[in-house]
Amino acid sequence: MLAITSLFFIVGIIIYFLRRSQKVSEDELQREEENQAYLELNSDEQELYFQSKDYLQNNPYFVGDLSASQNLSIQEKGISAFEFVKDAMLTFNDLLVVNKTELNFFKNFECSTQTNIPIPMKNEVYYFESKIYSLPNPEETLIAIGLSIKPYPWFRLPGRHAQSVSYDSNGYRRYNQPFRFTNEPPFPKLAEGDVVGVGYRTRSGTIFFTRNGKKVSETKIGGHIRNFKIKNHGQIFPTVGANNICSVHVNLGQRGFVFIEGNVKNWGYAPIEGTGPSPPVYNKFNSDILLERSEVGDDDDFSDRENDFPPDFWTSVKNGEEANNNNNNNEEEEEEEEEEEDDDEEGKGRHSVFINQDKFSYNAYSEANSNDERITLNSLVPPHKPPSYNEEHIKRDEREEEGEDGDEVVAVEEGEDVEEEEETETGIASVGPSSSLFKT
């Protein structure tokens, strides 16, 4: 027993010293890095360097799997759920994100942006491409495309600090390296129109880069970056930054990749289309069902929820519906009778066909779906002669009207004379013997 306890004690001491040595080594590395920053960086770069260190210490990175809302968003929207979001400290005059993945940098200072959702870590490989759409001043502009934790200092390019990797447009690969390089760039330099791809293998943590559809060789710098995994299941985000005016369009899988293998193996961040429910079909008025109760199926199942409604609720509802239907039918019948009577009085030979239908739809070619009066050749009134505005026609019309008026006056006067003569004759005959009185 003493031997076993002594053995455990010795093992514990060894583990303690190993951890302490690792901690000491990390502290020593940080001190060496700070000393190098004082020696190699100018005052502005030193200020950015130490501000970034404080930023990372005060803002711990995100850990764990995707949240329920993020998973649901990817399920419903697909790749459209991903978008680049600028930091709140940046204005639209500094960085403008158009159509979720088109990044436009406007100012002459370092800034970067990240996606709203991290790498899902469900597939074996995730891959995205970035096209340098516009690069007005390539000699004075530096673009960095890569991966990093979140939150990452928005005023720094990726690859400069811990847990970040980038492919810079000047041809260098950066991995937690904020200092200047003295050797030649191992990667080809980027120009306007180039497409840079960044791939991540979730099992091994390997990162690889492509340029214009071909893998970039990294043998000069020790091969691919491996075991890029964040402690405590830290999340990894695509990150793009620049320090001058330029435009970068990112493809997370919403369209085809230039790298053919990425297309064949579907290395996008999410499916192009989501699997969420389709929008409702908008048919006739009050015909669609937008919401349904999951616990209520057929009409017979209402008996399970009798306590949810007042007594005789459904009978009163049915009676009210029947009364409304009867009133509507009576009103429609009365309207039809009135309209038929009006048509008979006018004597124009028209008749209307009224059918109950949806008031919010109209079919001009159907006889059964129209409440409007049907227009046929027999129901049309013969057209009148259109008026003429020439002087000859106007004078002739006036003469015709005067002639018609004169004939009517003569006819009226003659009619009055005839009536007076008839009255005198009848009056004399009716008097008889007393007619002599009038003679005297």
TrEMBL record:
Q: Where in the cell is it found?
A: Membrane
**SMART domains with a match to the protein in the record:** SPRY
One matching Pfam family is SPRY
| Topology of this chain in the membrane | Single-pass membrane protein
Q: Where is the composition biased (Acidic residues)?
A: 330-346, 399-425
Answer yes or no on keyword Transmembrane: yes
Origin: domain of life: Eukaryota
Q: Where is the composition biased (Polar residues)?
A: 354-369
GO terms for cellular component:
membrane
Region of interest (Disordered), ranges:
297-440
Matching entries from PANTHER family are given as: RAN BINDING PROTEIN 9-RELATED
User: Any idea what this protein is called?
Assistant: Ssh4
